[in-house]
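step=encode ok
step=design start
structure_in=
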């Protein structure tokens, strides 16, 4: 065995160290991204579990549908991300259609507060309210 075998072994080992050194940050970065995504999924599931909504009433009078719902959970909810369906049809909500405990300027629906949604629609029989976390409540509409 001459010097050529030792030199070629050293070159192969040096190449392996360089390849391992280049691969380590890529694997570490990929692992961090997967871990962060998994944590985000778990946080969202926890928020969904801690979300509670209860429809207080849904009334229809003179072309106006009024829906009141209570945040009975421990999670703060976003009013713009709350969806209203009337007879399974999407009802677009403008910022002036909603009020939280009488305050129409807020977009934050805190635990223990009541949101009031008032929209002009054709008379529905049933309404469904869905929060940003997918928690859904439905009720029949009372015609006044």
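sequence_out=
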């Amino acid at each position: 065995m001459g010097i050529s075998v030792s030199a070629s072994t050293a070159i192969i080992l040096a190449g392996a160290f360089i390849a391992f050194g280049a691969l380590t940050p890529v694997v570490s970065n990929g692992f961090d991204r997967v871990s962060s995504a998994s944590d985000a999924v778990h946080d969202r599931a926890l928020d969904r579990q801690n979300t509670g909504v209860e429809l207080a009433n849904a009334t229809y009078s003179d072309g106006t549908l009024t829906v009141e719902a209570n945040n009975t959970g421990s999670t703060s909810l976003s009013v713009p991300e709350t969806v209203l369906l009337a007879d399974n049809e999407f009802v677009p909500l403008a910022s002036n259609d909603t009020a939280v405990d009488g305050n129409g300027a807020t977009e934050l629906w805190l635990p223990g507060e009541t949101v009031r949604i008032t929209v002009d629609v054709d008379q529905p029989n049933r309404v469904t309210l869905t929060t940003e976390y997918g928690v859904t409540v439905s009720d029949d509409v009372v015609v006044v």
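step=design ok
step=annotate ok -> The longest strand covers residues 53-61.
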